[in-house]
Amino acid sequence: MNELTAALDALAAEDLSPLFGPALLDRLRPLLVLQHRLAAEVARTVREAEVSGAAEVDGLKTMASWLRGHAHLSTSEAARVVRAGRALAHLPGLAAAFAAGEVTGEQAAVIGRVAEPEALARAAEQDVDLAAVDRVLTDVARERPHADTARAVHHYLDRLDEDGPEPDPTEGRRLVLAKHADGSLSGRFDLDPVGGERLQAALEALVQAGRSAGDARTRGQQAADALVQLCDNQLATGSLPTLRGHKPQVVVTVALEDLADPAVGRGTAEMGFGATISAARARWLACDGAVTRIVMGPDGLPLEHGRTLRLFPAHVRRAAEVRDGGCVFAGCGAPTWWCDVHHLIEWMNGGETNLENAALLCERHHTKVHHGFRVERQPDGRWRTWRPDGTEILIGPGRSGLILTTAA
């Protein structure tokens, strides 16, 4: 271990800045092999620790819990390491390839599913040659991408239980959300093939419909925006189940002086599920929202609850939909049902709530307009869009969108 640590220290001390292209790749390839070999040793050691009950030394019941607590692995990663370790005892071909660095820890864990007790019992009942399965799957892992390994394992397990009952697809579904200090969310989910297909079909429709000229978002950003849009569409239809007598809605609480102040006002508005946002973001949400005035007393209790005012009434929104036909931001073709009605002159700054002061903007471009971009309707009915630096976004044949003009 001391020699291994010293070798790693020497590698870490090397200056990589003189290297480029092929030289960096030549350095990377053997490092990846060594990474796989180390992963194999970790999995083998974890398996022996599991068999001997080593986790009890530190007061824990399983090696999965030990890996989560002592190695700071995620739940899924700890389970993957444990599963890979268990598989090595039943699949010597995989164990040898893993130890040689020819397959990854992730591949070993996927193949390890064939060595789980239930799969081993079924294989024994059907006189399956496990050594042949080990050899075939290991060869796939050596030569093919990870996705092919996963498909091969899935095919084997399906053939192993061809006559078994169709599982309940909802039993394996899972969605876990984690809220961070700033109110943002991250999470993970597991869906059965049919549920996954439904989600992909819905998101892909929104991704493709929401693509516009000059869209520089990554695929991941497009999918995330599509998920938010899917939720927004459902909330807007009003067809979701009611909660405590009220339709689901995005709720923001902000002081009147913060709403009226043009400053950003970070961390001054609170949302319904506890997230904190800026006053600027609250003003953006207020563009096409409903506003309720509540007067608070010195003891923090409400003294007066004014009536709720819908900023853009339904008839003005319908007129804007007929006039604009969708998002008016240059190059965007988002349909009307994706759009908010934006105040060209902010409502809190005296802007009137009428058709002349209205513009349809999808969520992404509504955000852009509240961050320095500007849209303006010309007397002939055409909409023009300017960047924060005053240059106009021009879309059309021979106009790349990089042509600079002076904003009127």
Ends distance: 70 Å
- Cα-atom radius of gyration: 29 Å
Helix amount: 40-55%
Main sheet attributes: strand count, strand direction, barrel closure: 3 strands, antiparallel
Structural class based on helices, strands and sheet pairing: alpha+beta
* Major sheet strand order: 3-4-5
Family: Belongs to the Rv1128c/1148c/1588c/1702c/1945/3466 family.
Keywords: Endonuclease, Hydrolase, Nuclease
GO molecular function: endonuclease activity; nucleic acid binding; zinc ion binding
Pfam families: DUF222, HNH
What does this structure look like?
- It is a single chain.
- With 408 residues, this protein is α+β, with helices and mostly antiparallel strands.
- Among the domains are: 26-158, no CATH class; 268-375, no CATH class.
- Helix content is 46%, strand content 13%.
- It has 15 helices and eleven strands.
- Strand 1 and strand 2 (185-190) form a beta hairpin.
- The radius of gyration is 29 Å and the shape is elongated.
- Residues 398-408 have low confidence and may be disordered.
Keywords summarizing the entry:
408 residues; DUF222; nuclease; 15 helices; HNH_nuc; disordered C terminus; alpha+beta; two-stranded antiparallel sheet; three-stranded antiparallel sheet; endonuclease activity
Q: Could you give a short description of this structure?
A:
Residues 315-367 form the HNH nuclease domain. With 408 residues, the protein is an alpha+beta fold. It has 15 helices and eleven strands.
